[in-house]
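Before the break, one more example. Copy the sequence into your notebook; we will annotate it together after we see the structure.
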Amino acid sequence: MTMPLPSVHPAYQGAWQRTLYAEPYTPPYRATDTTTRVVWLQGQQWHADLRIPLESPDFSHVQSLAACNRAQLEWLASLTAFAGLTQIDGGVCTWHRLQDLCPSLEKDVGLLRWQADTLEERHPAGHYVEHWQRLTTPSAAETVRVDEQGRLRWLALGDHAMAITPRPPIADQSDPFALPRHASLDDLRWRASLCIDYCQRGPNGWHIELSTQPWRRGSCIE
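Here is what the structure looks like once it is written out:
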């Protein structure tokens, strides 16, 4: 069952790309990141977020989770990718992560404000700041598909979309919050089986630009 949440204000709806991550939220920054590819899709209620670092293991000869070695599986299981419902109240945004590749006990809350055409997100305690640039107009057509379990499977906004393949059910699960380096190979494969693809629509349909399973990049989907 999904939570009854009000619609997100149209000003925040659309496809977004991150242009800056910095710690803390004001200069001088101790750390910055402008190379990780980050895309956030925000619909009327649903969101999907995918973040792929510039540096990664070599997946050139890998075509499935079964073919991944431990180092590759640990990297996949450590990625930030999630989908769920969004609640914004007075600029305080809570992303309810109903599907999360690398779950955490920390609540995902940010303070949103506009800086000209940039949407700025700050950690409530000032630990970080993120800058977001819009890829679509607020009025971009939205398509949502949810499965019988109430899980988001497809969120499209204009020519941008996220496709989500949920994890399969398992009978016995180890600690979902354990660090990947402490997980078994079977558990790592199960964790990484949650697949989130960022897709763009072209003349020949939808193609995958980024994915939590790198071998899917460049493929076309219906």
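The chain is about 5% helix and 45% strand. The longest strand covers residues 14-23. Try to locate both features in your own notes.
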